[in-house]
Amino acid sequence: MSLDSIRIVLVNTSHPGNIGAVARAMKNMGISDLALVEPRKFPHDEATWRAASANDILEAAQIFATLEEAIADCGLVVGTSARGRTIPWPLLDPRHCAEQAYAETRRHKVALVFGREDRGLTNEELQQCNLHVNIPANEEYSSLNLGMAVQVLCYELRMAHLSGDLSADPLAEWDLPPATPEALARYFDHLEETLLEMGFLNPKAPKQLMTRLRRLYTRARPDEMEVNILRGILTSTQYQIREQAAKTAATKEPEA
Ligand code: SAH
Predict the structure, then answer these.
(1) pLDDT in tens, 41-99
(2) Is the pLDDT of residue 172 over 90?
């Protein structure tokens, strides 16, 4: 376990100065893995200037085209949000979040995802996270500057690291690793396809069905084998539907 397994992910950041401030906040707390998803201006002098002596973090930052790619190898993904959303997700404060995130670094990489300065993260992005964290700021003005929000979370991660307490790991005794975000994304595609095929999901009135199912599975955190079993059930269901459809079509054919 270590702070080396923590990845800070910034999505579509507008101001390069904020990226520099994030690098500095990370280095001060001993965290170094920075991932940038579609940064609007990077590299940029202002980022370098604000990073001060944390320029090495900027130089090593990985750039991704999508959030999916930036978190593909992470066993736990935490989304940050300054406000509540229509469909609530499991929500933690920074201290409890950091205790869990740090304890889980024993096993896998952990991503903390931060949003755009003007609009935060989209619902679709937040739905790719296992849990959400909110800094319980002044209700009348709850949105922190991006660099400050990263600082708060990195500080709490450092405190968790210094305490050495690993009791907050919900998967402590589990025998298999949780399915990767990539495997879960493939499962959701397969599930949606099957639900459409069986007529359970109506594309004209999908309501929030897929969002609610996504929440169920990201909350349950199925392991690799469980996701394989679920995929197998879907494949078998599709086979039955297609067999049935073929039989019905055959009985309808006029006799020769
Ligand atoms: N107006 C946006 C806030 C953007 S602030 C909104 O309402 O969502 C930029 C980013 O800083 C956010 O996406 C989040 O990653 C982080 N942030 C700011 N304030 C936060 C808070 N109170 N709790 C958690 N994250 C916060």
Answers:
(1) 999 999 999 999 999 999 999 999 999 999 999 999 999 998 777 788 999 999 999 99
(2) no
Query: Going by CA atoms, what residue is nearest to atom 8 of ligand 1?
Result: 120
Which of 3.90.1150.10, 3.30.1660.10, 3.40.1280.10, 3.30.70.2660 would CATH assign to domain 3-163?
3.40.1280.10
Q: For ligand 1, is residue 135 a contact (CB within 6 Å)?
A: yes
Please name the residue whose Cα sits nearest to atom 6 of ligand 1.
120
- Residue minimizing CA distance to atom 11 of ligand 1: 146
Question: Domains of the chain: which residue ranges?
Answer: 3-163, 181-252
- The answer, yes or no, to whether residue 21 has pLDDT greater than 70, is yes
User: Dihedrals φ, ψ of 65, to 5°?
Assistant: -85, -25
- CA angle centred on 49, ends 43 and 54, rounded to 5°: 85
Indicate whether residue 68 lines ligand 1 (CB < 6 A).
no
Q: State whether the beta carbon of 150 lies less than 6 angstroms from ligand 1.
A: no
- Alpha-helix runs per DSSP H in 131-180: 146-163
